[in-house]
Amino acid sequence: MRRFLYFLPGVPGANRQMLADRGLADRFLERGELIEHVVLGVDAGPAGSGCIVAAGPNQPTYAPDRQQWLEGVKFWCAVEDFPPRPQDLAREVGISGYETPLGDGAAWRVPLIRRWDRRRLEHLPNLPQSMRPSVVSGSYKYASHVRPEYAAVNGRAERIMEAFAAEKVIDGDQAFADAAALLAVNYRIGAEECGLLGLMDQEMVVRVLGLAVDAPALRQQAEEFATDGLQFSTPVIEEE
After folding, report:
1. Helix ranges (DSSP H) in the chain
2. What's 84-107 look like in SS3?
3. Domains of the chain: which residue ranges?
């Protein structure tokens, strides 16, 4: 099957809370509900006894001779039979954006977290929003805010935009983590799965970061307004 396997060391099974504690809840959630998945206890996995968790109805097996396992901080991750494709991992509800080929040769949709408004000359959130009250001079005022479940990725986009605007040297580990988190908005993956699939080198990491903050539109208008103070450049990933 085209799916990932996850090995949790030291536990015979896993429930929703255990998946969350290991940092895996987002791989098995759609609209707040667990997708269909199976759990298999094993006596000998990639790190001793534990359990293997996988999406879908088919029971997983531990077969190290035909599986490539990667160790994470709180879990191990592997490709089962064939590397998953974007359509195998796409979330039911995602964010529109730019499609771009990554290291596996497939086209992945990078969510447009911040869009450039050419008319207003503003960089605006491109995420679901809801009205929120605040007290101003003793009465409520209502304004739109990015929904809480997207607050973290919106914060990443703000930091990424600052790096592009200032042509900063950015930390390579943080840049890769940010790019993986952006892809996770539209796909059930994280940094571990990106590594197993070989999705990104340094150039692709910067491309993903840029597409998430509407780099093509910003760069185009910066060129048009070259003498009017609108600056937009490409950050450099720090070499180790």
Report:
1. 16-21, 86-89, 151-166, 172-183, 191-197, 202-212, 215-224
2. CCHHHHECCCCCCEEEEECCCCCE
3. 4-82, 97-237
SS3 149: helix
Q: DSSP class of residue 60? A: P
DSSP 18-61: HHHHTT-GGGSEETTEEPSEEEEEEEEEBTEEEEEEEESSSPP-
Amino acid of residue 112:
L
Q: Which pair of tokens denotes residue 49? A: 């006894």
On whether the CB atoms of residues 32 and 92 are closer than 8 A, the answer is no
Alpha-carbon distance of 63 to 46, in angstroms, equals: 10
Spatial contact of 32 and 50, defined as CB atoms under 8 Å apart: no
> Helix 151-166 crosses helix 202-212 at what angle (to 10 degrees)?
110
Residue with token string 């490539």 = 68
| Number of other residues whose CB lies within 10 A of the CB of residue 17 | 9
10 Å CB burial of residue 59 (0-12, 13-18, 19+) is exposed
Per-residue pLDDT reduced to its tens digit, 116-169: 888 887 888 999 988 888 878 778 888 888 998 899 999 999 989 888 877 778
Tell me: the pLDDT tens digits for 167-222?
Answer: 778 888 999 999 999 999 999 999 999 999 999 999 999 999 999 999 888 888 87
Q: How far is Cα 178 from Cα 163, in angstroms, rounded to an integer?
A: 12
**Cβ–Cβ under 8 Å, residues 193 and 186:** no
| Rounded Cα–Cα distance for residues 150 and 148 (Å) | 5
